[in-house]
Amino acid sequence: MRSTPERADCSSRTGSPGGDGSSRGTRAAGRAAHRLPAALIAGGVVFDLCTPSAYSYGPFLSSAPLVAASLYSLRATAATAVVAVAAAIALEIYEHGDNTVLSVIEVLTIAVVSLLALGINRIARRRHRQLASARGIAETAQRAVLPVPPARIGSLRVAARYVAAQADARIGGDLYAVQETPYGVRVIVGDVRGKGLEAVEAVAVVIGAFREAAEQERTLEGVAARLERALQREGARRANLDQFEGFTTAVLAEMPSRAPVLRLVNRGHPPPLLLFADGRVAEAEAGVPALPLGMGDLGAWPDRAEEWEFPTGAMLLLLTDGVTEARNEYGVFYDPCTRLAGRQFRGPEALLDALVLDVARHSEGQTADDMALLAIRRGDGRYHHARLGTVAAPTAAVRKAVGSARGRS
Fold first, then answer.
1. pTM above 0.70?
2. Could you give the C-alpha distances from 24 to 17, 21, 31, 361, in angstroms and in order?
3. Among 10, 34, 284, 323, which one is most buried in terms of CB atoms within 10 A?
């Protein structure tokens, strides 16, 4: 049985990618952008009062409603337009009352630009609502395919999250499943290549095969072999599954009910993390790298499950590459091992809430891929009847914080 070798212990690493400085800078930039329309109007007034009449204030006052159209609601954009036109009228009366034709042209120009800004605002808001609706449908479809894991299984506490990427509303191929079997609790976290309905169909194949194999196969290696065969069989049978370039990275885990151990089979997936009660974090790296599921034609060798210590109070964190490939503005990837080292969490729900929020801060809400997260904590051995969990999505506080980070960006 493997313990936590020092090469995988994150506690000894120094430094932390990114930092709060970039987040503070983004917040400051967002506040400055929201103040820009008012600053343009004020700047135009000051410019006109301090310069000869040959110089026009028009560019300042015309820009204000256009900038507001991309930042404000329709009502706030209209208010900005009214203030800009009113300021133009006031300046013409005060400074240029002797040239009626030019004054009328100047005011009409700003009024026309303001009307255009209102139209732009309506189009932008409509598209924003359409994208939000599409994203909601996509996430609903994703969660219809993914099972909601029980909050407790035996002495294990379980929490899961699925966080859609900010970039678009396409359905992703991230997956997770938890199954109580005669051989212990078995779980899978994986990532199907591609997006859209093809990825969802592949997710359904993987989860269905896992459910069946987890109950019937005596070993975790047998489960991995069944998944491999299922993907190859369904790839040849279904036109929507990519038989030639499709693959699924996955981690299979098994936690026997009467032994404080963890067995893992990793098929080309980011390594799970083990978080111990004293704040240490270790990567459960595979001793021998293996190809993802669905690529058996390129090479075949037997899987070998590796054992790790999984004592009471420790937590297992399985994740997809949406976490590890999240970057900050300097292009630095998010390192969960380093970022979580030295921290303690009340339970798996708190761990996932903190992780989702930290990734959003690191990437400023600009994650490029979906994130599937599964956290499992070994308890004190007392049995609890399994019940359906309600933690498959981020809590309201985390959703609000992540939304704020995306909005600021």
1. no
2. 16, 5, 11, 10
3. 323
